[in-house]
Automatic annotation (TrEMBL):
SUPFAM superfamilies: ACT-like. Residues 61-121 form the CASTOR ACT domain. Residues 13-55 form the A9CJY8-like N-terminal domain. It comes from the Bacteria. It holds the Pfam family ACT_7. This is Aspartate kinase.
Amino acid sequence: MSHKLLIRLVDAEYAITRFTIGSAIPEWLPGPGFWTVSSSREEMTLVCRAARVPSSVQSSLGWRCFRIEHHFSFDVPGVLSSALRPLSAAGVGVFANSTFSTDYFFVAGSDLETALHALKEHGHEITT
């Protein structure tokens, strides 16, 4: 199923950081904008606005954040895929993350214009 979405381009650059399992959550992580912690058996990943991340932290910088503005129940299929499919077809790599209410996805800043074009061509509305 393909959904036409209202997608917000968040105005800040983001960083995706990597920590070892069992690391303490750093005090600089919480703050304005989207931020999250995820952990697996291999690593702990933190995402937040790049301006908060110290230069000593292993990070991938320069990511741009998109937020799906619609709220769908968990049983509605294809919501995130409706945004990611056109990006994949355009050759844009994505880092995705979900909250209880919606989905976020990140693209490298160097791919921002390509991503915006692909999303609009697919019929999505982009807002800032």
